[in-house]
Specification:
By secondary structure, the protein is of the alpha+beta class. Helix content is 31%, strand content 23%. The protein has a five-stranded mixed sheet, covered by helices on one side. Strand 1 (28-31) and strand 2 form a beta hairpin.
Amino acid sequence: MSAVEDKIAELGLKLPQVVPPLAAYQPAVRSGAYVFTSGQLPMVDGALPATGKVGAEISPERAKELAATCALNALAAVKSVVGDLDKIQRVVKVVGFVASAPDFTGQPGVINGASELLGEILGDKGVHARSAVGVAVLPLDAPVEVEIQVEIAE
């Protein structure tokens, strides 16, 4: 197991299996020194643990937890391409989408779930640029979706 996976275990978490694509795409692709993940839903054992809009059916606190699950799924996608998470030099960018009730404006706080977990797992290598976007609906009525871009050591 890699040092990154040891840290994930130390946090009481487990790196999941890569989530199979729901349509015509790959979970992650490598281009040069970078890996780009597709948007990762908060799937757990092949199912969404919650559905609905944040600020309506889903609380911001629960959505933040789900965003962390998305980040773990994104790391699994990265591992599927590079084989070893210790090759991550840094997380360059995180893009988070939040299926939001019309009056919900706390998208940055929700996506902090992904950002904070990446920081806990990777330390300074987890510090990144980020966008947090509110949207009307996400695939399968998921509350959140997260994609990451990471730089990989050659």
